[in-house]
Amino acid sequence: LQQFQQLLKDDYWIFSPTDNPFGDCAHYFVVLLIRRHPAIDVDQSSFRVHNYPNSTMGRQLVWIDLTIHCDKLTSNRISSTITVRLFTSHLESCRESSKKRKDQLSYAWSRMIQFGSTSNSVNNNRPGPRAAIFCGDLNLRDTEVQELGGLPAGIEDAWQVTGSRPELRNTWDPQRNTNASRLGFGGRGPHGRSFTFRYDRMYVHGSCLRPVDFGLRGLERVPGTRCFPSDHWGILGRFQPGSA
């Protein structure tokens, strides 16, 4: 974390649960990085850490609020500002943790919806429409979303909204990613069944932000090494301002 802070501090705001004295996450945590940009105002006081009470792996949900000035992002004449609450988390790992993972996902969805339904009149310093984005290594299986009754009303899956392209589906792919196969996952199960999963997902709530593109990152090996940046492919979503 100190290396990231030292190398990236001029280009990114970096928020870690270790910044929170009540975070209880000295050894395991996720980090939010927000690009420093004239169109983005970061409310540093809004940074929060929620320790999942059912986690046995030290997992948390973290979030922070941004104000996006649309006129500084596009040549179109859009004068509105959008308040975005950005969430990330690493949900409980492994098949046997399915119940805990579903409970954690349900909580995150509820926080997204709660933020979107809160009137801006109680936050006079954050005018305009609101949206929430939640993304990260969620360790999800499709059946788990189905068991929760599918996506809640108003929440969209960025990969699905942008066309559900099969080549962008799986972010855990030991057949292609040797970082993952070196962990002991060869990519094939009984009868040749593929062990590839869409573990990493991106959800959005709020009509003022429309997902328009979704892609994978980290598909090339780090120069000078035989390794990829991670055992997962990264995900990148692009959004356009929409009607509130």
TrEMBL record:
Compartments, as annotated in UniProt: Nucleus
Keyword Glycosyltransferase part of the UniProt annotation: no
Cellular component aspect of the GO annotation: cytoplasm; PML body
InterPro entries membership: Endo/exonu/phosph_ase_sf, TDP2-like
Keyword Nucleus: yes
One Gene Ontology MF term: 5'-tyrosyl-DNA phosphodiesterase activity
Keywords attached to this entry: DNA damage, DNA repair, Hydrolase, Magnesium, Metal-binding, Nuclease, Nucleus
Cofactor(s) required, per the database record: Mn(2+); Mg(2+)
One GO term (biological process): double-strand break repair
Protein name as annotated: Endo/exonuclease/phosphatase domain-containing protein
Organism (species): Echinostoma caproni
Taxonomy of the source species: Eukaryota, Metazoa, Spiralia, Lophotrochozoa, Platyhelminthes
